[in-house]
Queue: 2 jobs
Job 1
Amino acid sequence: MSSPRVRLYGRPDCHLCDEAREGLAELRAGGLDFEVEEVNIETDPGLHARYLERIPVVELNDQIVSELHLDAAALTTRLRG
């Protein structure tokens, strides 16, 4: 069985995105099993328009778990659910 995939929408030079990335790394280091797919919204005008004011956006199974920051508790609950 493959690991769940967490998608992080962000962009370069975004301190909130950096914080979310670090938080995801901490969750993985703490024993949660998931893969991270980072999506740079700067590479797609549609994603840029959709997510610019909301990044970082964290999704699990194509459902948004958190916006503007990493909600580690919500993500942990969904991953363990």
Job 2
Amino acid sequence: MSGERNARDGIRDQFRGFIIGNFAVPGGEAGLKNDASLLEEGIMDSTGVLDLVMFIEETFGIQVKDEELTPENLDSVDRLVTFVEKRTGR
């Protein structure tokens, strides 16, 4: 269980670092809530989603399919972590 938690935290940290480093996050790192909608909070727009997909593909070695480009998969840090875990079998 501890190993799974550490892996999940590592994936979460990678996403948080990417988002904070590439998008304007109101309040900086403290303003990025793991369960907040990246689109509704104005952190990311449709162009940002494309940058995020490139990051996912390059960082985790998975191809994001068109049908996977949904808010359920990509619209919060927590959803991103879950998506990557499902796709990589972690």
